[in-house]
């Protein structure tokens, strides 16, 4: 059973919406999966991350982004200073696992979009990170390409969308991690601009701190023994040079 979109959009709490969507049979994907994978994180977060669809681990455990790609996403979030259950809400374009992890078809995406739109209405994020081309095409432009769109903000109806690579693409091609980290640093900057100017990221300090660090280093060189100095090759203690991805991602 599936409610029409106008009824989904009238639901005003996430627990009720989850219960309703878990009964959805609007497309063929429901017949081939264990269950609907609804979402995860803080329903009041100001940042929403949207991926493609559940894989085998997500289907088994009933939560989005819990396999290898999800573990990588958690490491990226940690580098940003974001906690999954506090700073973000995570969902997918389709909520049932496509067979063999194939890309969901346009009609499957269209069938599931009312569920996602109802989630987005309740979360009401100011920043949405689009993880991969399926999310980009479903929410912004069916003809868009992630390789061209990534790393540039798209403002739509007062919401700031940042397209970037899906973590599964980063696992397949680790050379893309540098670009993905560039995109997530823009997300951190936007979060400081729109949500919390004091947001702490262990790998991307605020601009003022980044600018102050070389000056402090120079002053310390002039007066040996003053101030805590970053190790050679690092911007701030434990922080890679700007442009480099955090180690261990
Ligand atoms: S993928 Fe979405 S539309 Fe299709 S059955 Fe699952 S919840 Fe419903």
Query: Which CATH architecture would you pick?
Result: 3-Layer(aba) Sandwich
What percentage of amino acids are in beta strands? 5-15%
Give the mean pLDDT.
Answer: 89
Binned, the helix content reads 40-55%
Give the cofactors and ligands.
iron/sulfur cluster
CATH class group: Alpha Beta
Query: What strand line-up does the widest sheet have?
Result: 1-3-2-4-6-5
Task: Specify the CATH homologous superfamily.
Answer: Uracil-DNA glycosylase-like domain
The ordered string of helix (H) and strand (E) elements is: HHEEHHEHEHHEEHHH
Instruction: State the CATH topology.
Output: Uracil-DNA Glycosylase, subunit E
Question: How many helical elements?
Answer: 10
How would you sum up the global shape? globular
Please give the largest β-sheet.
6 strands, mixed
Q: Count every beta strand, where a strand is a DSSP E run of 2 or more residues.
A: 6
Poorly predicted residue ranges? 223-242
Summed up, the domain count is: 1
Radius of gyration: 20 Å
Return the structural class.
Answer: alpha/beta
What is the CA–CA distance across the termini? 41 Å
Explain how this protein is built.
The protein is of the alpha/beta class. The chain has a single domain (about 5-195), classed as Uracil-DNA Glycosylase, subunit E. About 40% of the residues lie in helices and about 10% in strands. It has helices at about 5-10, 15-20, 55-60, 70-80, 105-125, 135-140, 145-150, 165-170, 175-195, 205-220; strands spanning about 40, 45-50, 90, 125-130, 155, 160-165. It has a six-stranded mixed beta sheet, sandwiched between helices. Strand 5 and strand 6 (about 160-165) form a beta hairpin. The chain starts with a helix and ends in a 27-residue tail after the last helix. The model is unreliable at about 225-240 (pLDDT under 50). It binds iron/sulfur cluster. The site of iron/sulfur cluster has 14 residues, from helix 5.
